[in-house]
Amino acid sequence: KRTVSNFLTVLNNNQPLYIKVPCPIDPDQENANGLYIYHFQVGHLVVLPQFKMKEDKIALQTYHEVLGNKYTVVPFDAQWITEYGGVFNCATWTVEK
């Protein structure tokens, strides 16, 4: 049986990399503007959502610093997707490879 405790043990044992990125969202907002973690990755390409917000630059810089030596990080305007409540992860569920 899998439990939260087992999950936390696996995380602790494997020391996963985490990236602290801005998340300037309001709990009551109805769109996904500001959710930088919902990027799209294919191989060594990471497409980072941008929202025409001041935090865009910080998120892009953070991704470049952490992933830039192994991945190509490309910013892309995602506002047209966020109007429907999601970002790249939602729009790319059907992409296999």
Written overview of the protein:
The chain is α+β, with helices and mostly antiparallel strands. It has four helices and three strands; from the N terminus they run H-E-E-H-E-H-H. The chain has helices at residues 4-14, 55-67, 79-82, 88-91, and strands spanning 40-42, 45-50, 72-77. The chain has a three-stranded mixed sheet with strand order 1-2-3, covered by helices on one side. Helix 2 links the parallel strand 2 (45-50) and strand 3 (72-77). The longest helix has 13 residues, at 55-67. The chain starts with a helix and ends in a 6-residue tail after the last helix.
Outline the secondary-structure elements.
Blueprint: H1 4-14, E1 40-42, E2 45-50, H2 55-67, E3 72-77, H3 79-82, H4 88-91
Task: Jot down its keywords.
single chain, 97 residues, alpha+beta, 3-stranded mixed sheet, 4 helices, 3 strands
